[in-house]
Design the sequence.
């Protein structure tokens, strides 16, 4: 059997936001990958393990191993905020990149990788991006997993990557967010969307934790969840291609 380790660099626990049916945010991430590989023939010989680091408290792996995957997920913080743990995370990203270590960013993580490696992240003038959004894949990106050339994911963000790092190649784009995804070399993937979100969870956030947001945006987001199908498990397999 082959080992495949995913290190989750947890950037938030979202206190008060998680419903009873989700015991923890890293549970969502673990479930995403385990569900994605459950019936996939490629992973029959793999044993997948996880380790969570409380990065929002300053905890990071002591050793960067190029045979393991480092996953940087979402947060309510902004990558441009002057917080000690964010500065430490950006330094970790820079060191991991120099070693060409497999690394993936989701939402905040996507923005953190961009910020650390020379990109630009700011609150978007377009406002809140939420619901399920479909973006266009570029230059044949991800066709092994998304053969129709489009990517649909759940979203929940106000910030955007406005400028990519110099080494980055844009993978996906939409009218709402020009940099929906990017890669650097063969070791970094980053997505603005949330492959780990479920319809039920995003609906819970929209109905219970969206005070002060425009009602028309919430209504459109709820409608998008009814009409569209998110492709999180396919993105999870794409992510795992970095290490298998």
Sequence:
């Amino acid at each position: 059997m082959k080992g495949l380790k995913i290190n989750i660099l947890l950037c938030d626990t979202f206190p008060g936001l998680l419903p009873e049916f989700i015991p923890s945010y890293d549970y969502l991430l673990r479930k995403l990958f385990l569900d994605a590989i459950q019936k996939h023939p490629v992973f029959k010989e793999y044993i997948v393990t996880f380790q969570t680091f409380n990065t929002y408290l300053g905890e990071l792996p002591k050793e960067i191993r190029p045979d393991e995957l480092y996953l940087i997920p979402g947060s309510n913080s902004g990558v441009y905020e002057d917080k000690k743990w964010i500065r430490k995370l950006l330094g970790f990203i820079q060191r991991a990149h120099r070693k060409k270590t497999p690394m993936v960013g989701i939402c905040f993580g996507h923005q953190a990788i961009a910020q650390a490696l020379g990109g630009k992240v700011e609150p978007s003038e377009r406002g809140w991006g939420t619901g399920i959004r479909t973006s266009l894949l570029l230059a044949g990106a991800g066709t092994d997993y998304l053969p129709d050339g489009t990517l649909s994911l759940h979203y929940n963000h106000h910030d955007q990557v406005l400028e990519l790092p110099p080494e980055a190649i844009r993978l996906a784009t939409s009218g709402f967010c020009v940099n929906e995804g990017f890669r650097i070399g063969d070791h970094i993937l980053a997505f603005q969307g949330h492959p780990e979100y479920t319809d039920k969870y995003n609906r819970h956030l929209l109905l219970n934790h969206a005070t002060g947001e425009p009602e028309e945006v919430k209504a459109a987001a709820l409608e998008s969840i009814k009409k569209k199908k998110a492709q999180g498990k396919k993105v999870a397999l794409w992510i795992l291609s970095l290490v298998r």
Q: What stands out?
A: DSSP finds six helices and eleven strands in the chain.
